[in-house]
Amino acid sequence: MGHPNAIRERASNASAEGLNSQIRAMRVKARGYRNKQRFKHAILFLYGKLDMRF
Length: 54
Fold this sequence. Notes:
Blueprint: H1 4-9, H2 14-30, H3 36-47
């Protein structure tokens, strides 16, 4: 069974696991990025929850 504190506090890493899964899918769909910085920017742009309203 889970850790008692996690159960008591209702803590979960589900959102982190979901984000990791989305990032993996993005990497597979893109068939690899030649530039790591562009990959980082793509992750931040798509999943950074930035307010893009002007």
